[in-house]
Known about the structure:
This protein is mainly beta.
Amino acid sequence: MVTVKVVTAHEMKGYEHYIIKHVLLDSNQKFLDEHLFDPTKDSAALSIFTLKDYSGTLYVLSLCNKHDIWLNLAEV
Ligand SMILES: [Fe+2]
């Protein structure tokens, strides 16, 4: 089992400016999971993903409502 913790250091200022979601992709950039944020409730852009079994490269997309998308990766 693999636990992936994703944090985007970004404000969560209601619907004005916030992280919409985190998307987890596999080494072929195929969709694995995503976590949508509720800017009226979530005070931090933090996601915990749990994968049954995975090794290799993981890509994470972090999507802001104003500033588009960021990509990061990790080896597990
Ligand atoms: Fe932003």
